[in-house]
Amino acid sequence: MAGLRIGGLTPLTSIDFPGRLAAVVFCQGCPWRCSYCHNPDLIPPRGPGNLPWGQVLDFLAGRRGLLDGVVFSGGEPTLQASLPDAMHEVRALGFQVALHTAGMYPERLAAVLPLVDWVGLDIKGPARHYDAITRTPGSGTRVMASLDLVVASGVDYECRTTWDPELFCEDELINLVGTLAAHGVRHWALQPRGTAGRPSVPPEGIAHRLAAAYPHVFMRLP
Length: 222
Ligand code: SF4
Hints:
The protein is of the alpha/beta class. Helix content is 32%, strand content 21%. The protein has seven helices and eight strands. An eight-stranded mixed sheet has the order 1-2-3-4-5-6-7-8.
C-alpha cells in the first residue's frame, strides 16, 4: 500500500475535476513558498500527515458507484515518491484520477501522466517573475518543461493563473497567455486574487482583450 502523506480529504466536489463528482486528497508538503499560498497548513513536508492513506482507501472503497474520480491536490502531490502507487490503487478501485500540480518536478509528472485523466497545472506568472512569486530559484524553467509534457501527452488539462496586479501587470498577463498559446496551450483559466479590503475582480475589458488576442484558447474567466 502506498505511504502517501495526507493533510486532509474533501469527500465530495463537483468543481475540482471537470464533469466529474470527485473526492479531493490533499497531499502534504510543498517545497515552494508562494506568498499567496491557499493551503499553508499543507506546506511542511515532514511528518506522517493527518490521515493514514489506508483510511483514505477505505473511504473511497465505500464510495464506489457514487463518485467518478479522485483528485490529488495539495500541497504538491508530485513531491511524494509514493504518488504513482497511490494513483494505481485509486484506479484499481475504479476511479478516474485528476492531478493538481504546480509542475515543479517534470520528471515525476512524466511518470504519472499515463495514470491521470485530467491535469490542473498552475502557471504562476511570466518567466521573469516566477522565482519571486515562488521564492525559489529556477522554478519557472521547470514549470515550462512540465507544461510541454502536459500538452504533448494528450491528457485533458487546464492551465490556471492566479493573478494579482501587485505581482505583475495586466499587459504581462496578456503576454503570458500568448506565451502559453505558443506552447500549444488551448485551455487556460484566470483566477484573480483578492485580499481583505480588495476583492478579486478582473479588470474591466480584460476578457475582451484576451479573447481578441487569442481566439483559439478556451478561457475560463471569473
Ligand atoms: S506551489 Fe501551491 S502549495 Fe506550494 S507554496 Fe505555492 S501555492 Fe502553496
